[in-house]
Amino acid sequence: MDRILVTGGAGYIGSHVVKALGERGFPVVVLDDLSRGHRDAVLHGDLVVGDLADAALLNTVLSDYKPSAVMHFAAHIEVAESVREPLKYYENNAANTVNLLGAMARHGIGNFIFSSTAAVYGIPEQGPVVETLPMRPINPYGRAKAFVESVLQDLSASGSIRSVSLRYFNAAGADPGGRIGERHDPESHLIPLTLKAAKGKRRNITIFGEDYPTPDGTCIRDYVHVTDLADAHLLALEHLLRKGSTQAFNCGYGHGYSVREVIDTARRVTAIDIPVEIAARRQGDPPVLVADSTKLRQTLGWIPRHDDLEYVIRTAWEWEKKQR
User: Fold this and answer.
1) Does domain 190-222+254-320 correspond to CATH entry 1.20.120.430?
2) Whole-number pLDDT of residue 186
3) What's 245's DSSP letter?
């Protein structure tokens, strides 16, 4: 079968995709500097520890393994950090991706799957969000991702690299088998933070704003189980290996849950009365951010299997209970 290079494959979403690839029989090589990933999260294939800024290493990996496609997850993901340290995000998320694409072009590797984000839309004027909306990112994290998507369009037009960009909404949950899950440091995502509060590792969970124009006043987001996301990546890979065209797809369930609904569901799952603190709104938080994933479902045949908030949180809780 075609060998696949997965950059950032020791991280949260990348490791779930590596698991799915390995279970499907694909030979896998993971390239990760382990600055935010975890060696024990790589369940299949070979692990090469290194940095995408290292041109010699990239050349060696591509020469030795000769992958048919590259899946790219190696990126910083904290929006607030990107505002404080924009160069860190432009260097890693933009410049290092260009380094990778350049190396692929030199080695004649023409299939690329990009871990993108709903942040490329900024604050959408309508919802659910469709892919035809303009990219209007409002922070360096989103701008770096949007820049890469523009580069990918140019590479596709030149005939050198075809790509699929998957724009994630809110990835959540953990491997149902309990082998891998979410381990960010620092953690900024609502579900793991809520579960850490349930476990007593935090004093409470903070709700940033309760006066939004939503039914309960808190923000609504589209939470998609990481296993369903992994399935979307394999479908994207099959699309490219069949010589499919360059595309961008939203990855979400098409409906959302409010912050309060997430916390209430976590209370039911854990049987713990998780304490809550109310704080001011965060700048740039849209009231509602929900994907229209019709294009992904119709074009690639994506059929989500875990569209159930309680299931999402239950798998995350089983994982969190195992963590120190």
Assistant:
1) no
2) 87
3) P
Encoded amino acid at 51, one letter: D
Region 170-198: mean pLDDT is: 96
- Does residue 12 have an active-site annotation? no
Residue with tokens 């875990």: 306
Cα–Cα distance measured from residue 290 to residue 35, given in angstroms and rounded to the nearest whole number: 31
Long-range own/partner contacts, residues 146-150 (CB < 8 A, 24 or more apart):
146/120, 147/94, 148/93, 148/94, 148/97, 148/98, 148/114, 148/116, 149/114, 149/116, 149/120, 149/248
DSSP 153: H
Encoded tokens for 253? 């369930």
pLDDT at 320 over 90: yes
Q: What is the pLDDT of residue 34?
A: 97
Per-residue pLDDT of 38-87, as tens digits, reads: 999 999 999 999 999 999 999 999 999 999 999 999 999 999 999 999 99
Alpha helices in the chain (DSSP H): 12-24, 55-65, 79-84, 86-89, 96-107, 140-158, 190-199, 226-241, 259-270, 294-300, 309-320
Q: Please report, for the chain, the start and end positions of each structural domain, with discontinuous segments joined by +.
A: 4-172+223-251, 190-222+254-320
Q: Which one of 3.40.50.720, 3.40.50.2300, 3.30.450.20, 3.40.47.10 gives the CATH number of domain 4-172+223-251? A: 3.40.50.720
Global pTM value: 0.97
Task: State the DSSP string of 174-233.
Answer: --TTSS-----SS---HHHHHHHHHHTSSS-EEEE-S-SSSTTSS-EE-EEEHHHHHHHH
Q: Return the closest-CA partner of residue 296 out of 130, 68, 149, 69.
A: 130
Active-site residue, selected from the candidate residues 12, 65, 141, 223:
141
